[in-house]
Write a structure and sequence with these properties.
The chain is mostly beta strands. The protein contains no helices and 15 strands. The chain is globular, with a radius of gyration of 20 Å.
Amino acid sequence: MMNYSCHCDCHNNILRLNKISSSPICQTNSVQPSVPSNFTTGAIWRNPATETIVVTLLNKSDVPQTVTVSVLDWQNCAQEEMPKEAFLCGESQPSLFNDTPSPFTFIIPAKKLLVVHATPQNAWLPNDPCYEVLVETPPDPVLPGDPVTPNDPIILNTWGINDIGVPQEGNTVLHQQFHRTIFL
C-alpha cells in the first residue's frame, strides 16, 4: 500500500503530488522537506579555447556565509581538483594551496562577491576534456528550504573563459541551471 504524504494549507486543501484536492482528511506535517544546498554543474565538455573556469558567488544575505568550491578535472579517472585563485571584491585572497589543489572553503562577508578562478592543468590532452563545478552553500537560516522555490543566500554562476576573458560557448552555467544534489 502506498503512503502519500500531504501538506494542508489554511483552506483545508490538500497538496498531493502537485495536485490539489478538497478532501477534508489531512495529516499535517510540521517538518518541511530539506532542500539540498549543494550544487553541481554535472560534467561539462570544455571548449578548446577555455583557459580559465570562473565561478562567481554572490552573498545576497545580511550575514557572512561559508562556501566550499570544488572544480574537478574529469579528463582522467582520478577527478583531480584544479588549482584555484580567489578574489573578494576584486582583491586577490591569500592562496590556501601549498602544493596540492583541494576544495576551496571561504567565508563570504554579507552582500559581497567572491570570484574563484580555476585553471585546467592538462588542457593540451585531446581526450575527454571535461570538468565539473561543485559548490556547497549553507541553507538559508531565516527562510527554511522550500523544495519548489528555494531561497538561496548565495547566487552562483560559472563561465569558461579564453585567455582574453571572453566566455566560451557551452561553458556557461547560471544559478538556476546548477543541479541541487547531496554530497556523500
